[in-house]
């Protein structure tokens, strides 16, 4: 099956998205084709648009938080079928047979293919991926709000699984934006004591409604100093340099500073800061298909939703301008109107 797919593409770094059509080619034997209903807009889409990570190919069709119905399947596809409502995140394909894949750590597959890296993503009427990465939505999830869970959501959910976080743990979340507002909800429903670190205290009531037990000014060194030795996990969702020493001091023995925000500057750390108390700095990105499925089930069970602002797909440039303004509360979702 070969067809043309309608999309919006940028033709240069920092360029505007314009209507674009491309030949999809034959559907692979293990591929599915998804008719996109909704596609989240992630800050990673903006980084890719601007070629900040030096791996963007143009014309660039972003979109790696797509939700829609499967309209076609290859002959060797398993577990999903035509008509299923599924989501697709950052990852579109892995080899399936390396040690990482076989042990359930597909995100570490050396042949991992990103949905918008060297291929076209979900800012389109249709998008394709390997069937393993098309994850079915459970009943009870709103498809119009589910897209951001497949990147932003899994990025902050996976650490709770990977790091074996316990309901008795004290968790701090730095930066309450697209990632952080979901992390608060996950930590709260996980049973943890939750502290939100934010530079905007005007959001205090809102953050407590999302699950924060405490709200702390992330720019107040004095407040950070008072929290010395408190946290089992501090999850950083920001992409800027912080007073990392203060946050390391705020960790309890065996505590972890876990990074999911793409901070480009090096983090200065002296080994003695980690040795004292057996502290560590760690990081993850997204999660395996089974963990994505568990996250979706967790969200459905606990009524966790992304807080979204909605645009039509044809308003994509307006949506990106709003994203760049830094005023989004908390994720943008585009609705297909091709």
List the helices and strands and how they pair.
Blueprint: E1 4-9, E2 18-23, E3 31-41, H1 43-49, E4 66-73, E5 85-88, E6 91-93, H2 99-102, E7 113-114, E8 126-130, E9 135-136, H3 143-146, H4 152-162, E10 170-174, H5 180-190, E11 193-198, H6 204-210, E12 214-217, H7 221-226, E13 231-236, H8 244-249, E14 251-259, H9 271-275, E15 280-283, H10 289-302, E16 308-312, H11 316-325, E17 331-335
Parallel strand pairs: 10-11, 10-13, 11-12, 13-14, 14-15, 16-17
Antiparallel strand pairs: 1-2, 3-4, 3-8, 3-17, 4-5, 5-9, 6-7
Helix pairs in contact: 4-5
Descriptors for this entry?
single chain; 338 residues; alpha/beta; Quinone Oxidoreductase, Chain A, domain 1; Rossmann fold; 2 domains; seven-stranded mixed sheet; six-stranded parallel sheet; 11 helices; 17 strands; 27% strand; globular
């Amino acid at each position: 099956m070969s067809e043309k797919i309608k999309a919006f593409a940028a033709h240069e770094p920092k360029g505007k998205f314009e209507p674009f059509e491309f030949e999809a080619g034959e559907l692979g034997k293990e591929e599915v084709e998804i008719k996109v209903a909704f596609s989240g807009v992630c800050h990673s889409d903006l980084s890719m648009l601007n070629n900040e990570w030096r791996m963007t190919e143009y014309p660039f069709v972003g979109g790696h938080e797509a939700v829609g119905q499967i309209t076609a399947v290859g002959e060797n596809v398993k577990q999903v079928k035509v008509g299923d409502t599924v989501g697709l995140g950052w990852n579109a394909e892995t080899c399936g047979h390396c040690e990482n894949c076989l042990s359930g750590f597909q995100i570490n597959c050396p042949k991992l293919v990103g949905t918008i890296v060297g291929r076209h993503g979900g800012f389109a009427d249709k998008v394709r991926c390997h069937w393993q990465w098309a994850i079915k939505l459970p009943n009870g999830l709103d498809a119009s709000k589910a897209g951001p869970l497949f990147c932003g959501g899994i990025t902050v959910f996976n650490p709770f699984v990977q790091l074996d976080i316990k309901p008795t743990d004290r968790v701090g979340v730095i930066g309450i934006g697209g990632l952080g507002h979901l992390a608060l909800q996950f930590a709260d429903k996980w049973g943890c004591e939750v502290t939100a670190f934010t530079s905007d205290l005007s959001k205090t009531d809102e953050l407590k409604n999302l699950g924060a037990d405490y709200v702390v000014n992330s720019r107040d060194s004095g407040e950070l100093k008072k929290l010395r030795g408190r946290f089992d996990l501090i999850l950083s969702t920001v992409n800027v340099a912080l007073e990392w020493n203060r946050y390391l001091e705020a960790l309890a023995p065996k505590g972890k500073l876990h990074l999911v925000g793409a901070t480009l500057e090096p983090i200065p750390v002296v080994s003695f800061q980690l040795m004292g108390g057996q502290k560590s700095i760690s990081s993850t990105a997204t999660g395996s298909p089974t963990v994505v499925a568990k996250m979706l089930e967790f969200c459905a069970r606990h009524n966790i939703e992304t807080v979204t602002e909605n645009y039509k797909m044809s308003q994509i440039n307006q949506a990106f301008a709003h994203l760049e303004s830094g005023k989004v509360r908390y994720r943008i979702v585009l609705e297909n109107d091709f």
